[in-house]
Each structure stands twice: as structure tokens, then as C-alpha cells.
Amino acid sequence: MRVRQLDLIAFGHFTNRSIDLSQGHYGLHMIYGPNEAGKSSSLRALTSLLFGFPQRTDDNFLHSNKDLRVGATLESRDGKALACVRRKAKTATLLHAESSQELPLALWNQFLPNIQQDQFLRMFGLNHVSLRDGGAELVRGGGDSGQALFSSASGIANLQQKRESLEERIEEIYARSGRRGRLYDKLKDYKALREEEKKVSLTMDHWRRLESQLTEASKQIDDHKTQLDSLQRSLLEAQRVQRSIPTVTKYLDREQAIRALGQLSKLPRDFEERVQKAFKKKGEKHIAIQGIEAELSNFQMKLAQIPESIWSDEQDLRVNKLISELGLYLQSFDELPKLKTQCDQLTRQATQKWQQIGSLDSLKQRLESERIPTSQKKWVDALAKRYETIEKQIADAQLRLGRLRKKLDDDSSSIASKASDESLKLLEQQVHNARPLSSRRQELMELTQDSDRGHKRICQSIQRWKVRVEGIDALAQFPLANPTSIDRWEKELEKRSDAVEKSKSELDAIVRKKSAKQREFERETKKGHVPTRQEWETSIRSRDEAFGLLAEQRQATTQRWSECVQAYEDNKQAADQIAAELLDQADLVAHREQLQQSIDELQAQMDEATVALEESKNQYRASQQAWQAFLAEHQIDVQSPEAAQEWVQAVTVLQREAQDLLDKKHRIEQTASAIQHASVGLIEGLQACGSASDHHDDFDALLIRAESVLRKATEERGKAQAVQKQRQLDQQEHDEQASDLQGLTDQFLELKKQWWEALKAIAIPQEATPLQVQTILEQVSELQQISDQIESTQGTISQCQEQVRNYEAAVSIAIDWLASRNPEAVAEVSSQSNAESKVRLLESYGKQTSKDKSQRGSLEQFQEQAHERLRKASEELGMLVRELQEMMDIADANSEERLLELARNSREFHLLDSDRKDLRERLQDECNSRDIEPFIEKVRQADADQLAIDIQNLGEQLVGLQQSREQAIKSHSALQRDYDQLDTGGKASMLATQASGIGIEIEEALQELATLRLASAALTAGIERYRSANEDPILKLASESFSQMTLGRFRGIEIALDDAGKHLLVGRRSQDGPGSEVLVEQMSDGTRDQLYLALRLASLQQWNAAHEPMPLVVDDILVHFDDDRSIQTLKQLVQLSDQTQVIFFTHHQHLIELAKESLPADKVFFHELAAG
Amino acid sequence: MFRFIHAADIHLDSPLLGLRGYDSAPSQRLRSAPRRALENLVDFAIRSNVDFLLIAGDVFDGNWRDFATGQFFVKQMAKLRDCKIPVYLIAGNHDAENKMTRSLPYPDNVHMFESGVATTERIESIEVAIHGQSFATQAVTEDLSIRYPKQVPGWFNIGLLHTSCTGRDGHENYAPCTIEGLRTRGYDYWALGHIHKREVLCQEPWVVFPGNIQGRHAKETGAKGCYLVSVSDDSKITAEFEPLDTLRWEKVRVDVQSARSLEDIPGLFSTKLQETLDQCEDRLLAVRVELVGESQLHRKFRIERERIVQECQSVATGLSVEGVWIEKVVCSTRMPSLENEVQGVSEEAIQAILGVFEESKTNPDFLKKIQFDMMDLRAKLPSELRSVELDEYLDGASSVVELAKERVLELLASQGEESR
Fold first, then answer.
1. What is the model's pTM?
2. Is the pLDDT assigned to residue B170 strictly greater than 50?
3. Residue A1026 and residue B407: Cβ atoms within 8 Å?
4. Closest alpha carbon to A166 in A1010, A827, A806
């Protein structure tokens, strides 16, 4: 691919600027631009064109992002051209230059093979920085020829880094030097865990050893215990003896004292106490008897002072009863006046009632003789209620009957017929027919409007599309061309046009090639005159002619012989010289001839191509004429097939619309006719129904009127029917009501008879109304109630009077009883004014009598108790005297004084004996249940001082032994603790689990390491393999380039082996001998740049041999080169430009000058970017 | 009617393999997990008030060195003695391998069968005869059941045997026997041990492997425990499985076909893990994650396995406070297509590199030639880590070659990505 033209449409500071790169076959295009001229922008523009705009760009300062555009015309190896534009957008960034349609990817890929921007820049982009970096990479590779060449050839220049990254990963896992890396750490952890596991694991021997030690320690503790027990026993015995010495001494003293007191053992221990107690009690009893006797005298005196009682139980009951009934008596006494007043009031009420009843004398008489029975009253009540009910029912019935009669009269007058049924039926039928047309009328209007609009539109379209028809009917019938035929024509014309374009393009290519050859030929010609074969042949011919002339002259005369000979010699020399020149410059001649031949061939091709082009044009013209005929035949007024296709489609649509319009018009006519017919029918119907109308009325108005008339007639008819129906019902109800009224009247007459009889029975006149009767009866009832109350009150008064009388009689009886026993008291009682005072006084007499009686009873009871106590005390005294006598007998005492003395001696005996027993018990305790006598004897004979020394010795021994034992216990505890800690709760298992986890990680790390090592080794081997397969041609090409670039100072480059057998890239100087082999790191920076450039150019040549060539874009790579080397390098680029386009950007004017001076003008083309 | 428990393969204090540590891991619970399983067995026996307990071999691990483990077992047996539950056990291949097994001071309720000859123990009160024989050596290759005593007529006869039966994958073929052979003894129940996966081989008579009581590594997945066997008065047998494990191993398969990047993996895994967690109650869980399905990320999965482990572990920690270990992430995914994945490198170069891998498959000395040698590292490994699989890696097995090839392709592809 090459770039024919780069269009900086809107990019950076460029607007519609183009760089023509079409000169030459591929050509070296040197683009000069001073600083700020836009050299870098152009470079970026080219990259953006090929790979799209970067997301962020600095080239939008003049043109906004959406306006950024870079265009180009590209040409593929087989001569195909493509004009395209790249825009900055998210989608559809690549467009056809002409159509602005998105460029199909497949088409783009024909020009730009599947290559990424990075790769493009790495392989086909060069600047002085990348040159220097490339050189540096050569040094970093240590002259590793395999890597260097492989990198340069394959475009994966950073593979070395990738391989190094693999190596870094390997080192991370496990450094080859060891002792570093994840794996090393894990292995360390693993081993530590296994060691720990071993440590915490309990071995059987360890367990046994510990178990044995534990048993031994237990046994030792037991032995110590035995010895300790023995020592403790000895010590305790000695201590007991020591402790018992004073006890034994006391014990022996007591025994001696007891013996001195004699035989007092028969007297009991408490004898002295009992004796003392008996004497004490005897004295106390004497005193008590004297006290009781004094009490008795006192009681006797008090009893004598209380008077005798005159009150009897009967009198007591009587007075108590009077007291209890006193309240009732007082109540009755108080009630009597109130009751009498109440009775008087009731009598007055009765008199008033009688006055209200008035002049019903018969009733009065009747009531005076007897009361009206309740049953009779109820009967009269019931009759009165019925009387009133029936009377009200009759009145209601008469009222309803009156209303019904009036309604029947009204209904009869309102029922009347309005219109005849036949007329209505006719109108109904007409409305039924017309109604569907109402909605269609709206539709008709819309259709008409629509139709008018459609008509107008179609007429406009006919004019617009220039369809040669008169009217819409003709349009529908217009014969249209078949679109398929137009397609065919389109393809045919396109084919013809493509053929012409192709022929033109081929001709252009041939013309370009021919002009290139022509220019080359002219350059060759300019190098100096070289005789042509024609000149040589002319010269030979002249020589031969000269020789012929000479021969001729020789036979004729010899006059001009010398002139002829000279002429021959001259011609011969000229021919020889030409021949020699031809021989000398045979290559040049051959080249010129070859060029000429090529030019001729190209001329021939050009002629052929011109003929072909002409032929294509003719065919195209013929097709065009036929196409025009086709258009004329089908009355199509456009030129191109696309337009024709569009025209046909448009007219087809128009035809469809015209047909639709005609259909619509037909429907309009049908509907209008139907409406007219329906209007006439409606007018007839209305007239029949008596509604005035004429033919001027609108259809809708007619229909509305007809419907209205019909609706009204129907409503009226319905109403009349309803009234008739209601009248029948009313008549029926009227008859029923009349019948009911008659029944009620009969019932009322019957009731009246009963009513009169009932009034008669209670002596009320017949003319009394039920209301009056009820009022009289209510008053009579009230009168009777008052009478009853008077009777009841009078009864109560009698009862109260009786009660008062009875109570006062009972009081008199009580006073009479007292009269015979206490006349003074009777006088006092009788002097009281009322019964209550008398009873209260009697009550106070009763209470005093009871109090005296109670006091006497208590004194008599105390007296009795004192007698009893006296008797008891006398008995106890006797018993004490007897007890003392018995004690004297026991003690053999002849007097109470002697008894007391013996008793005191007995007490001392018992105290000594008790003390002796206590001492013996203590000794018994000390001798620990053994026989006590030997112990007492042992203590009696013991030496207290010796005993103290023995005890001290034993104590010391005991302490020593206890310390030993404690030590043994401590040892045992420690062992036990160790033993208990033997089970670490499965810690060993846990450690093993953890170790297993790390083991898995180790395994995975090893697997990863193996994978990476193998990957690295395989990658290295693969690189080497590829290198050896590819290095030779590259090396050869690079070697030549390098030699030329270094102006022959280096013969070339070679692959050498280092001491380790590794391939090395070296430069070979032109002079043989020591030092002719130069390692990469020994080269100067500039030489290294040239070496790297040589390798890159060689790699590109290699690439171009097998791939679609890509333009090499070079940006000022010669900044570190001197002029000579620059020229040589430029020549290399010229050489490369035979294979691919080379675009060389520079801002060094002198490089342009150098190139112009040194490089062939037909291969190098100069362009300039204006500054600013 | 009587009841007994049939357990086997306790492998007490056997390390749980493959559990790497992580932050907030409940290490204490993990530490006690294998012992808790035995405690669960003992507690279950006491709670169920069984008449006796059968242990069909392999109480301990073969390379068991911690005598405290034995002491722990003895203590647990003593608990059963206190509850008057006799224990009948035989030594399995692992017990026979370990010298300490026979040195333990078992309490008097534990009866261990002899190794020289099959003998019978009788429980008069319920008329049960238990026949058994311990392994004398680690590798017993003859059919021990042939010489088991004849049935005691009218009694319930149980055969206690450590055997691989007709052979099972992943287990040494020790004391092989056949169901037909076992049937000839006329026993009612064969209590087998040695196979760690529970299985009822037959119900006429009952021939049962209860499996081990605690899974020890990722291949021993699912619930682990014992059988509670009830025998009715008319000798009708029912066997009910009781889980005893405190840490459960499970495999979680995650289909990653829908994943667009590695960031999608935790979400997909979370859903699957929750389903597994729901079935495990409050047990600790050790999970092997297997990525399956066709995915463009196939190589990334294989290379970034460690990162995926970490992320899955984070998800697991977030989902369960009880503790979930991610034992390993296994990548069983497939690459959809190899075409056009490497860019920026010439086809010839790629072919040259791939050719190296191809050659390594056919030429055994080739790896040496390209200086791939891991033997320096092998020498530094502890002997117990030198497994056959590991040796294969270190020797350059085909799996490693494949991984290395993928790694290189990924490297070249990543270069392509960079250039894009």
C-alpha cells in the first residue's frame, strides 16, 4: 500500500491542505517543515488516518473534535485506489471520500492488512529516539544476535522483556540462587511445622518413661508418709506423757483427799442440795399458810357489807321486755296524730272527686250501693276503643273513596289518541332506512375533502415527476417501465462505466510507468552520449560504403585513391570507435536499450490500453444510447438509472394513489345517491304524520325531525296505555273500598248496640261519648282508690291505739310488783309523768340489783379458792416434814443440825470424786484408749527434763521428713502435670493439617515454577529456532546496508560464538587482523544506531517480500549522522523505496539540500510544509 | 430387641489434607474437628443407649506417632465403659502398621480381636455372637472371611471384617472377599471397614461399609458417620445413617460460561456455595471449587488460580461465620477457539515456538536439551512431598507442557492486547 495523497482537511492548524505523494513508483518523499510548520501534526494525521483518532487529542485547538478530518487516497499493490476520510467519532469513523458513507471494513483491509497501530509504529515508524533505543536494546541484549535479529525481524522487539518477566516470576517463586522466593519460604514453613509436629508428638517411650517416673514418685510419697506417721506417733506419745505429768499429780492428790473424808459414797451427789432445799421449802410453807388465813378474814368482812337483793328473775324479764318494746310504743304514740291528719285529708279529696263527677245521680246511687266491677270497666274500655277505631276506619274509607272517584273522572278525560298507527309505521320505516346514512354522511364529507386533497396532490406529483398523462384516469392506465429492466440497465451501464474507468486506470498506470521509464531513460541519456546501435550500424554502413568506393576507385583510377583510403580509414575508425564505445558501455547501452524497450513496450501497452479505453467508451456510449431509447419508449424524463428507478417507484406510488382516489370518488357518488333517496322517504313519512316539511330541508335536519316526531308519538302512546292500565286498577280499588265501607258501617251499628247496653249497666247515659265515658270511669277509679286509702289509714290508727294501751298496762303490772317489795321505789316511779320515764327508772333499779349480786358471787368464789390453797399448803408442809425425816434416816442423823453437817461433807466428797474422774478421763484421752494404769505409772516415773529433750529431737526429725515429703509431692505434681499435658488435644494432628495446607501450596508453587521454567525454556528455544530460520537473509541485507552506512569502514556484520557457545552479533571492520571484530557494546552510539537501522531496513525488506508493503514513515533519523553517512543512509532509503513508499519528515533544510544534490531526482520527491 | 452402632475407619488425628490457612479461619474448631467426630460417635452411642459398638478397623493412622492420640481414644472408650457399653474392634491395615496400637491400656469394655485367627465373642444377654479377626500386618492379601467361625445357631451373628471386598478405587486391595463368600458364613450382619465411602452392599444378609466418620481430604466428600443398627425380636434389621463429621468436604461446580471477566467469578460462586451451605447445617466446610464450561478466560483461570482462590475464600468467609475453607480451585474449563487470539507476532514465530512444545511431546530428551530441569528442586523437597504426581510435574509431564504452552500463548496474546 502507498499513500498517493494525504489530505489534512481539518487537523491541527491545517485546513484543506493536501500533500501529493503520488510521484514515483513508490518513491522517497521528503517532507520538509521548519519548526511549528506542522511536521509532527502531519505525522499524527497519517497515524490517525490509518488507525483512528486517539480518544484525547491535542489537535483540536482549531477544529473541534467533531470536525476533525484527515483524508487520503491510498493505492494497493495491485493498483487499486481508495479515497477515504477519517473523522473523530465513536462509530463509523472511516468514510468514503465522495459518498461520505461508512467504509466497509473488508474494503479497508485490502489496503491496510490486519496490523495494529503499535505494530505499525514499531515496524514502519522510525525516529531518532527509537533508533537510539533500538541501539540500546542491542547492548542490553548483550549482543545476543538471536534476540536482536529475531526482534528486528518479527516486530516483537519487546519479547526480550516478556521473557524477562517470565524469569522474574520464576525468581519470585524460587530464585535460582536458592534461599529466596515464595517456594523457599513455604518450604521453610513446612519444615518448621513438621519439626514442631515431631516435638509435640508423644512417643511411646516418653509416655512409658513418664508413667514410670510418676509411679516411682507416688511410691516415694507413700514411704515418706509411713515414716512420718511413725515419727508423729512417737512425738505425740512423748508430748502426751509430758502433758500428763501435772494431771497425774492432781489425780493422785484427789484420791488421797477422798480417802480422808471416809465412807460418804452412799449419800447421793445432790444430797446436800436436797437437804438445803427441804429446809428452805419448809420455811416458805409456814409463811404461805399465814398469808392465806389473812385473806380469808378480809373476804368475810366484804361479804357482810353487800345488801340482800329484792329483785326477781320474773321482774327482770318483765322490765327487759318493756325496755325492748319501748321503741315500738314510742313510735305508735308519735304516729297517731299524723295518721288522723292523713285520714282527714283523704276524706276531703273524696268529696272533691264527687264534685268533679258532677250530676250523674244514677251513677252516684249505683256507686253508693256497690262498686263497678273491674271486668265491666274493661269491657266498656274495649268497646270504647273498638267504637273509636271503626269510626275512624269508616271516615278514612269514605275519604279514599272520594279521591278514587275524582281520579277515575280525571283519567277518563285524559285518555285520547294522537296519530294513526299506519302513519307512524311509515315514518318509522323511513327513519330506519335513513339512520345508517347519517354516519356515512360525515364519512362522505371527509371522503370528499380527502378526495379533493388527493386530487390536488396527485396533480402536483404528476407535474413534479413530469408524467406525460392527461388527468388522473389516464395516470392509472399509464404503462410503466419494469424496475427489473431498469436494474438491468443500471448494471449494464455501471459495468460499462467501470470498464471505462478500469481502462482509464490501466492506461494511467501504464502512462505513469512509461513516464517513469522515460524519465529514467532521459537521466541515463543525460549522463553522456552513448552511441546507439543505429549509429553503429550507420557507421558500419558508411565504412562498408567507403570500402566499396575504395574498391571501385581502385579498379577505375587512382586519382582520388588517397582521399578514398583516408575516407575509408576515417569511417573504419569511426565504426571501430563506436564499436569500442559500445563494448565499453555495453551495460549502459543494455540498460538504455532495456529502458527503451520497456518504454516501447509500455508505449505498446499504452496504445493497447488507449484502444481498449476507446472501445470501452464506445460500448459505454452505445449502452447510453440504448438506455436513452428505453427512457424515451417509457416516457421517462430523467437520465440516470438510479433516477429512473426512483421515478418509476414514485410513479408507481402515484398510480396507486390515483386508483385509490378513483375508488374513493365512486364511493362518494354511491353514498350521495342513497342519502337523496332517504331524504325523499323521510319527507313523505313526516307529511303522513302531519308534520310540515319540504324538499329544501337538509338530510340531517329531516332525520332529526322525523326521529323527534316518532319519539314524541311513541311516548304519548305509551303514556295513554299506562293511564288506561292505572284507571282499571283504580276502578278495582274503588269497588273494593266501597265494599269495605259497607262492612264497616254494619260493624259499627252492631257495636253501638253493645255500647249502649254496657253504658246502661254502669248507669251512664247512652249519649255519652266513649271519651266522656272513659273520663268518668277514670274519676270513679280514683275515687275508689281514695276510699281504700281512708280505710287503710283508719285501720292503722286503731292498731296504734291498741299498742299504746297494751304497753301502758304492762308498765302498770311491773309497778304493781314492785309495790309489794319496795314501796319507796314505787312512789318514785309512779311520780314519773309518762310511761317511758317509768320504764327507764325501773330499768335503773334492775341494773343496781344485778351489780350487787355479781359482786357477792365474786367474793364468795375468792373465799372458796383461799380455802383450797390453805388446804394444799398444809398438805405440802406435812410432806416436807416427812422428807426431812427420811433424809435423817439415810444419813444416820439424829438431829436436823447433824443432817446439815453430813450433807455438807457429802458435797465435798462428790466434788473431789468428780475432779478425780475428769483427771482420769483426760489421762484416758492422752493414753489413747489404752490401759490407763500403766500410762499413769509411766507418767509418774517419767523424767520431765529428759522428756523435753526427746520431744525436741523428734520434732526436728519430723520437720526434716516433712520437707522431704513435700519435695516428693512437688516432684510428683510436676510429673503429673507433664503427664496431663501429654495430650495436646491433637496439636500434632493440627500441625500436620497445617503442614499439609502448606504442602499443597508448595505443590502448586512447584507446578507453577515448572510451568514457568518450561515456558521460559520453550520460548527461548522457539526464539532461537525462529532466529536461525530467518536470520541469514536479514543478516546479509543488514550487513550490506551497514557497510554502506558506515562508508565501508565496516565490511558488514556477522554472527560469532562467545566462550559459552552463545551466538553474538558483531561488526567486522574492513581491515582484517586483530580487533577487526567489534562487539555491539564496543561500538559508538552512532555506529550502533546505524547497525540497528540496517537491521530494521533489512527486516522490512524481508517483510515486504511476503506481505503487502506498508509505507515507512521516518522522522528525522539522521540528526546524529554526519553528511556522508546521511547520504549513504538516504541512498539506502531510496533503494528501499523501490519496494515500498518511504515518507521522510525532517526539519533540517541541509538534509533536503544534500538529498537534492546526491539522490536521483526521479526517485526522490520533495514537499514543503509552510510554517505557521 | 437390641441396637448397636457400626463404625469404621476413624483414623483418629489424621491430618486434614490441603487446608491452607486464611484470615479469620476458625483454627481452633479445625484443630479439634477429627477428635470431635470420635466424641460425636461416643456421645451418639451413649445417647442412643446402644447395646454395643463395633469398630471395623483403622482406629488410627498408619504413620501415627503421637501416643496422646491413643490416650484420647482410650479416654473415649472409658466413657463408654462408664455407661456399660462394650466395644468390639479389629485392627485394620493402618492399625497393624502402627506399633503403638497394641501398647494402649484399653479399658476392660474394649475387646480387640486377635490377629492370628478369627474368634467369636458372645453377648449372652441378647444372644449376639460377634466374629472377628484383626490384621496381623499392614498388607493382608488373603480372604480372611473364609476362616471365620461358623454361625452360632439361633443367635444373631455379626462378622467384623476389615476388607476391600471386591475392590474399590482409591483403596488398597486388602483382605479381598466376595458377597457370595460372606453369605456362606450364615451371619446376619457383616460389619465391614476399610472403604471410606459408605455403602450398603447387600441386605440379605446385611453387608455394610459405613465409611469413615470424618472426611480427611477433598476426595472424601459428603456426610460421614456411622450406622445405628436396630434388630427387632424377630431379627428384622434396620440401619440408619448418622452423620458425625464436624468438617465436611464438598465439591462446588461453577459454570463460568457466562463470565466476562474474572470479576464475575465470585458472584457465580456465591450462588453455588450458598446451596451447599444450606445442606451442611453448622459444620465447618472445605470446598473444592471446579470451574467448568467453555470460556474465553480459560487460560486466565488457569494462570490466575491463586487469585480466584483468594476471592472465593473472601466470598465464603462472607457467607458463613462458621468457617469455610477453599481447598483448591480446579480449572476444568475449555477454550472456545484458538484462532486469531495471538496478534502482533508473526505466524512463523508462533509456529516456531509451538513447534518446541510439539517436539517435547515426542522427544523425551528434548526438555533436557532446552535445559528444563527441576531436579535441583526435587532434591530439596521433604521426602513425603515427593509424590508421583509431583515427580511428573518436575519431569515435564504432558500436563505441564500443556500449561507452559498456554502460558506462552497467553504471554504472546497479552502482547497483542497491549498493541491493541
1. 0.44
2. yes
3. no
4. A1010
